[in-house]
Amino acid sequence: MNLDHQKLISQLRAGDVRALARAISTVENRAPGWSELLKALFPHSGKARVLGLTGPPGAGKSTLVDQLARLYRKDGRTVGIIAVDPTSPYTGGAILGDRIRMQEHFSDPGIYIRSMATRGSLGGLARTTADVTTVLDASGRDLIMIETVGVGQDEVDIVRLADITILILVPGMGDDVQTIKAGIMEIADIFVINKSDRDGAEHVEREIRALQSLAMRHDGWTPPIVKTVASQGVGVEELASAISDYEAHLQKENLALNRSVENWQERLVEMLRDTLLEKARAQLADGNLARLAAEVAEHKRDPYTLIEEIATKAAKD
Predict the structure, then answer these.
(1) Residue 81 pairs with which residues in a beta bridge?
(2) Most buried in the list 46, 65, 227, 287, measured by CB within 10 Å?
């Protein structure tokens, strides 16, 4: 590792916010040395509690994250916030960055907020969200909150990254729970009914309880249902209490470690796939892809043998 990165890591570990921002940018943009930086930071990670907050657009995720951050800061805990936003088709940047909604925290060095664009990734997270989480974790943050983009029932990537996944729903969305139950309902450790002062909150709660009765979790935990009105701070302390209860549950019988092992199995496969894909893409640069595509289109080569050859070469490089 070069001296610049060594200095950057020392500054980051000492609490320098600018160094943290530089490290995150290096990792997110895959700038030169990003991999070595992560290798050096990883041994310092693993201490932060990672919360994932997900749910449909308009559920009030940003407001709830904001209120939780306030509460944890009152307790003296440092917070990192990763807000994943949709990607602009024009600039490639994040649309409606949550920094705008959390401006009053900017003067607090105990809260670091980073907006990330999905850059075409599905599943509610950007490809580099996990790596940015590692950087924040290594910087010494006590708590990291990841607010996903809010894409609906396919938004399940967060469960492989967060220690605790919070699913936020709101009344008045029509067939509330039924519309997103396939896939996303199974990942929740805690349910939140936000904007619970609206009509229909009880209906949403009944639907959640009905779905819970259909399947038991293997870890013996029954996800609680917390009602909040995040814009007024109502129910936020109850949510923090539910988070604390699940943290205590995770400490029993190595549940936290077992869950981490399961998550890393999935993530290692993803990392391997991404690495091999990048190596394969490198072989298709400089017009090779167009040439090979033409050979397949003209039936001079079959695509199956071709892919096997590319994959074999990528694995050897």
Answers:
(1) 113, 145
(2) 65
* Pairing status of strand 49-54 against strand 79-85: unpaired
Question: How far is Cα 6 from Cα 236, in angstroms, rounded to an integer?
Answer: 40
For residues 74 and 100, what is the distance between their CA atoms, to the nearest angstrom? Answer: 22
The residue with tokens 């938004």 is 155
Structure tokens at 145: 């909150």
d(CA 68, CA 145): 9
At 69, the amino acid letter reads: A
Cα separation of 74 and 29, whole Å?
A: 33
Residue with tokens 């199956």: 304
pTM of the model: 0.85
In our burial notation (b when 16+ CB lie closer than 10 A, e otherwise), range 168-182 reads bbbbeeeebbeebbe
Q: What size, in residues, is the chain? A: 317
Q: Residue 255 has which token pair?
A: 């549940």
At a CB cut-off of 8 Å and minimum separation 6, what does 222 contact? 212
Mean pLDDT by 10-residue block, N- to C-terminus, for the chain (317 residues)? 85 94 92 92 94 87 93 96 67 48 71 76 61 95 89 61 91 59 71 93 88 78 94 96 95 86 87 86 84 94 93 82
Give the strand pairing for 111-117 and 190-193.
unpaired
User: 51 with 190: CB under 8 angstroms?
Assistant: no
Which region, left, alpha or beta, applies to residue 253 given φ > 0 means left and ψ of -120 to 50 means alpha? left
Alpha-carbon distance 76 to 70, whole Å?
10
Contact 205, 193 (CB under 8 A): yes
Separation CA 294–CA 69 (nearest Å): 55
Which one, of 129, 108, 110, 109, lies nearest residue 118 by Cα?
129
Rounded distance between C-alpha atoms, residue 161 and residue 228, angstroms: 25
The values of phi and psi at residue 251, to 5°, are -75, -15
Torsion of CA 16, 22, 24, 25, to 10 degrees: 160
